[in-house]
Design a protein that fits this description.
- The chain is an alpha+beta fold.
- It has one domain.
- 21% of the residues lie in helices and 33% in strands.
- It contains three helices and six strands; from the N terminus they run ββββαβααβ.
- Strands 1, 2, 3, 4, 5 and 6 form a six-stranded antiparallel sheet that branches.
- The longest helix is centred in the middle third of the chain and has 10 residues.
Length: 102
């Protein structure tokens, strides 16, 4: 059984660069954000973690639609969270430079 009850991906963009953050909610109700520096930032609740991400101008990937992505200069299909076997390997993938569209 996982120690996490929920996981979501968040992103901030600058041009064609995507900065990812992963929000995990623990079974106990606390939360943690894995940031683009490879650090795990603890929060007392999911709401606090979400507020911190929004304050840093991150948006939740699952909340984006085609129009939102296009307004940021991307196609929604381009926005795929990074994957790795563990957090150490994931850290180097948390900032992505997407190719220029043709």
């Amino acid at each position: 059984m996982s120690e996490y009850s929920d996981e979501s991906w968040w992103l901030a963009t600058l041009g064609r660069t995507v900065v990812w953050a992963r929000l995990r909610v623990r079974e106990a109700g606390t939360a943690e954000v894995f940031d683009s520096d490879g650090k795990i930032l603890p929060y007392d609740s999911e709401d606090t973690a979400r507020a911190a991400l929004m304050d840093a101008e991150f948006v939740e990937l699952s909340g984006l639609d085609d129009d939102d992505a296009q307004a940021r200069g991307f196609a929604l299909a381009e926005l795929v969270p990074p994957r790795a076997g563990d957090d150490a390997a994931l850290a180097s993938l948390m900032i992505q430079k997407l190719p220029q569209p043709h």
